[in-house]
Amino acid sequence: MTDATSTGQEPVAIMESPIHVDYRFTAGLAQSRFLKGLSQGRFLGQRCPRCHKVYVPPRGSCPTDGVPTTDEVELSNQGTVTTYCVVNVPFQGQSIEIPYICAQILLDGANLAFMGLIQEIAADQVRMGMRVEAVWVPPEELGPTMASVRHFRPTGEPDADYESFKEYL
Amino acid sequence: MAERCAVIGAGQTKHAAKREDVSIAGLVREAAERALEDAAMDWGDIDAVVIGKAPDMFEGVMMPELYLAPALGAVGKPMVRVHTAGSVGGSTAIVAAHLVTSGVHRRVLTVAFEKQSDSDAMWALSVPQPFSAPLLAGAGGYFAPIIRAYMRRSGAPDHIGIVVAVKDRKQALKNPYAHLHIEDISFEMVRDSIMLWDPIRYLETCPSSDGAAAMVLADEDCAAASPRRPAWVHGMAMRSEPTMFAGRDQVNPQAGRDCAADVYAQAGITDPRSQIDVAEVYVPFSWYEPMWLENLGFAPDGEGWKLTDSGATALDGGDIPWNCSGGVLSSNPIGASGMLRFLEVALQVRGQAGAHQVDGVRRALGHAYGGGSQFFSMWVLGTEKP
Ligand SMILES: [Zn+2]
């Protein structure tokens, strides 16, 4: 057997083999309504008929009770930062300048927080309990995508009391 | 459990940032050969192979088990792939053990691996999703807010994460297989390292590693014929829960509590801190030690950090040493990380852990979790036949 070094060549230890994947995603009824809401600058969620918890984005069924969430609920544009981190690490495909705030935001009237970007405040000023509001893209840029929400920013209201959101952590 | 099951062989690779000397097939074979050698067995002695790894998207190789069958001597034998994200190494061992306890097979080889140098896990975990902003920045971006919530809820002081990071890296110096050997690791070094995902510092996170782990599991007769001391399975359990539901306790997940309660009941454990001699627990970010101390019942809610702070979890002088091998914080071949926890407690029970051996281990807990804390797998091993 001829080994690579005997021919004076380095062995090929590693090679780059890029892959590219495009997904086609079937939104389903509940998420389709949520996406249409985003294109109108509104957050549309759904309430579970059994436990009465409000999910936004809605999943079409309640993860706890396993029943369809049929009642549509329009949520507020405002919410509370339940917890957050300051991202200071670069990664391939990153679209936001670091450091940035990745927060869990509980919209008023919702029972589950979702992830959102906080801007218009210094990273070291963000707090658990801080009150925030959605900043939407201009009306002509609204579309059925989460990108319709440009980011969240502080409302300037007093912080929410820890007791009021601790069960959402 | 119908049939008894024991670990009679264990093998792992040297874990490293880049194992360019081996392909994935070479990596898994290295661990498997060591496990067979430890069990004094040959490939032909194995009835079935159970393999696990983290998401295929990491290395970009779809269903790698298909091409790994020849390297693992699985041609002509049953081969099963298990997939439960980061907990997969643990669940893979449990699925393999079930093949023995059910009486289907007598000698099963189980293997788990990750070749992170072939992969971009950070990218794979940060792919834009239709319903969330592209903010995640890897696993750290997911877990950091949960750690912040733990700190707020428990009132734990800021230095606890640093204590764990230093302890596990010191312990790794006693484990020749560990990826990270930071000779001069210190409190100051960790404290002054960059905040990657505030409140998680660089040195409070796990590394990216290439590595594999393998074990031979056997029934009672095969264990009796084995030249080395078997580590008997006293209990094993898996649980899952959805990532997102209203009222979910992300800091202290119910599935983890339920999984622990199940495995303790099987093993007859009512007070884990006094009845378990050593534990290998999946701690990829240092703060997960105090969090899992509570989730696994070693400390009351909100007080796990006090146990860590007191030194109770250290190999040097602690009464309940955690992660004597250096843990996930010192070696993280993701798919194998859970199996390494399960394997390291087998080494402890068999008295094979070398410089990081705890004296007189009779019973030990191996633990893994994965996804957004959605999957848990645990086993308890002991020196005595259950
Ligand atoms: Zn419900």
Give structural notes.
The complex is a heterodimer of chains A (169) and B (386). Chain A has one domain. Chain A has 2 helices and 8 strands; from the N terminus they run αββββββββα. Chain A has helices spanning 28-39, 162-165; strands spanning 43-47, 54-55, 71-75, 78-87, 100-107, 114-118, 131-136, 149-154. A 5-stranded antiparallel β-sheet of chain A has the order 6-5-4-7-8, with no helix packed on it. In chain A, strand 5 and strand 6 form a beta hairpin. The longest helix of chain A has 12 residues, at 28-39. Chain A is globular, with a radius of gyration of 22 Å. Chain B has a domain at 6-121 and 208-225: Thiolase/Chalcone synthase (Peroxisomal Thiolase, Chain A, domain 1, 3-Layer(aba) Sandwich), CATH 3.40.47. Helix content of chain B is 33%, strand content 18%. Chain B contains 13 helices and 11 strands. In chain B, helix 3 (88-101) packs across helix 13 (334-350). The longest helix of chain B is centred in the middle third of the chain and has 17 residues, at 138-154. Chains A and B meet through strand 2, strand 4, strand 5 and strand 6 of A and helix 5 and strand 5 of B. Zinc ion binds at residues 48, 50-51, 53, 62, 64-65 of chain A.
